[in-house]
Amino acid sequence: MELTVNYLGDVQFEAEARGHKIVCDQPFDNGGADEGMTPPEFLLASLGTCAAFYAVQYLKVRNLATEGARVKVTCGKVLGPARLDNFVVTIETPGELSEKDIEGVRRSAEKCLVKNTMLMPPSMSVVIEAAVGEVASN
C-alpha cells in the first residue's frame, strides 16, 4: 500500500491513494480553515470504517439488515508521550439480532486490519529525503 501527502499551504495537506484525494486541515482554534478532518480524526475514521466493513460483511452473508448500520469510534488523549488511548468502537446494527448474531458481528469486527495493526504495534521508520547543501553564514 502507498499513500502520498502533499502540502497545500497553511496547515492543510492532501492525501492521495489510488487516485482518491482527501484534505486534512485543523479546526479554526488551531490555526486552520476547518476544511477537513485532523490526522487523529482520520485515524478514528480508518478504524471505524474498517470495523464497519467487517460487521456489514457478517450481516450480508447471513441476509440480515444492513441499511442504516453505523459505527461510532471514541477515544481520549493521554500524555507521556501525547497519543490517543482508550478506543471504543460501538457498532449499531439495524433491526434485532439474536445473541449468536451479536457475537458474530463482534467477532467479525475484531478481524479489522486497522484494529489489529494498532494492537500489535508495527515497525516504523522515518526517512528524510532532502538535498544537502551549505548553509550561508554572515
> What is the H-and-E element order?
EEEHEEHH
By DSSP (H or I, 4+ residues per run), the number of helices equals 3
Task: State the name of the first-level CATH class of the largest domain.
Answer: Alpha Beta
- Poorly predicted regions are none
For the termini, the CA-CA separation is 46 Å
Mass-distribution shape? elongated
> Helical amount among residues, as a percent range?
25-40%
Rg on CA atoms, Å: 20 Å
CATH architecture name of the largest domain: 2-Layer Sandwich
How would you name the oligomeric state of the polypeptide chains in this document? Answer: single chain
Query: If you average the pLDDT, what whole number results?
Result: 96
Q: Strand pairing plus helix content: what structural class?
A: alpha+beta
Order of strands, widest sheet: 1-2-3
Nutshell version of this structure?
The protein has helices at 39-61, 99-109, 113-119; strands at 4-9, 12-17, 20-24, 70-78, 83-92.
